[in-house]
Amino acid sequence: MVEPSKVVGLISDFGDSPYTGIMRAVIKSISRELQIIDIDHSIPSFSPLAGAYVVAHTYQWLPKGSVIVAVVDPGVGTSRYALAVETENYVFIGPDNGVLYPAAASDGIKRVYALREKDVNSLARMKTSSTAGTVKPWSISRTFHGRDVFAPAGALIAAGHASLEELGDEIEPERMKRASIDHVEKLGPSTFRATVVYIDKFGNVALSIRPKKLGINLSLYKSVVLGTHTTSNTIRMGKTFGDANPGELVAYENSFGHLEIAVNRGNAAKKLGLELEARVEIELLENSGPAPNGSRGVRNADLLGVSSRSLGETIW
């Protein structure tokens, strides 16, 4: 395993609540030497897909050797695994619901462990005991594994108090649940079906289309047609928000490499009536030549990104 940096990055959907502070307290109780970076606690509630988007696009800004703890866990207390994933440069800890997969895969998965919750809790209790020879009273809740499993495991690994083998059983990486933040269906030469993978606090709508990954040069297109099951909007293509007038829609490649829709000084999600995980059709209109007729006829979908034929289980 890469040399620990003694940095723990936290991501959750806990928002402004005591749960975030308690996780931080648990980490510091295990080792006061650890640095904690609160990456984001405003992940939309119950959305491992949005969590996966944030984890995948933020982890690389942490020092190599950091431990990233991601808690977006609507299945807490069920039979889902609690995972620790060792990659080439980091360790990712969280529930097995897809939230860890895109980030771990992009850094290169080396080993995956299913955490033994009782062993994590037992070692954490010893490390947080205030008096030598005593054990801190601490039971495992069925509804707060952020406190009782994930934060302690992250702290124990980041501080060098435990190895992955001491905290879990190794499993095949193919058994991990998979969320895909860049899965699209190609419906035609310039037409795609995509997913809303994230909506930020400004209402900017990030789609699963990653132009560079698909070999798309957005500068060749003047606009996009965004279609939902009820409406269709033609949106100008730009490079930044100011390429549209205040209140107007604009499409561009965001800082994480995704096609994104925004309203200059407004809220695109509200304007378009889009929600997280919604499916949309995108048609790219070229700068010159005849505009596509926008036909939505029957086509054979050419799956791009993570397909249902991949190993493991793809959730989105």
TrEMBL record:
Keywords associated with the record: S-adenosyl-L-methionine
Transmembrane segments: none
Family matches, as InterPro entries: SAM_HAT_C (IPR046470), SAM_HAT_N (IPR046469), SAM_OH_AdoTrfase (IPR002747), SAM_OH_AdoTrfase_C_sf (IPR023227), SAM_OH_AdoTrfase_N_sf (IPR023228)
Residue ranges of domain S-adenosyl-l-methionine hydroxide adenosyltransferase N-terminal in the record: 9-168
Domain S-adenosyl-l-methionine hydroxide adenosyltransferase C-terminal: 195-281
SUPFAM superfamilies xrefs: Bacterial fluorinating enzyme, C-terminal domain (SSF101852), Bacterial fluorinating enzyme, N-terminal domain (SSF102522)
Family: Belongs to the SAM hydrolase / SAM-dependent halogenase family.
PANTHER family (UniProt xref): CHLORINASE MJ1651 (PTHR35092:SF1)
Protein name in the entry: SAM-dependent chlorinase/fluorinase
Organism encoding this protein: Aeropyrum pernix (strain ATCC 700893 / DSM 11879 / JCM 9820 / NBRC 100138 / K1)
